[in-house]
């Protein structure tokens, strides 16, 4: 009857909310992973720049 249908709707709404929460959590952790990857790329760029600087210094020393 009426009550059963209402309970069914409530349960469906709860399941949908649960799925959305799961998707949101997955998106959140993916965003976190992407952020960490970007930070690592920045760090690698800095290391590369430092290595290039060192190389230039070495070449300057060798040129003398």
Describe this structure in words.
This protein is mostly helical. The chain is built from 1 helix and no strands. It has one helix spanning 2-63. The longest helix has 62 residues, at 2-63. Residues 3-61 form a coiled coil. Keywords: Coiled coil.
Order of helices and strands: H
Instruction: State the end-to-end CA separation.
Output: 95 Å
Structural class: mainly alpha
Uncertain segments are none
Largest sheet: none
Mean pLDDT: 97
Multimerization status: single chain
Q: Quote the beta fraction.
A: under 5%
Kindly state the percentage of residues in helix: over 70%
Coiled coil: 3-61
Keywords: Coiled coil
Short description:
With 64 residues, the chain is mainly α.
Provide the descriptors you would attach to this structure in a database record.
mainly alpha; about 60 residues
Write the layout of secondary structure elements.
Layout lengths: L1 H62 L1
